[in-house]
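Entry type: protein chain
Record version: 2
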Amino acid sequence: MFADRCEEALTFCQHVVGAKPQRVLRFKDCAEPPHLPLSDGWNHKAMHCGSRVGDTLVMACDGMAPSRPPSA
C-alpha cells in the first residue's frame, strides 16, 4: 500500500527493475461504491493494480499510511 503515490512507485519499479505494468483499477471504476465518500483526488487513485517482475505479479494500491491521512 502506498499513501496516494502508487503510480509513482510503479513507474519507479518499471525503470529500476523492468517491471511490466498490468491493469489499473481506479476507485472511480469500482462497481460497488465505497463505504465512505471519496474526495475528488481519490477517485483517480489506484484501488488495485499490479506489475510483472519476471514470473512474479506484484500487487499494489493507493491507501492510507497508518500515520498519514489521504491528501485530496
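Comment: Residues 6-60 form one domain.
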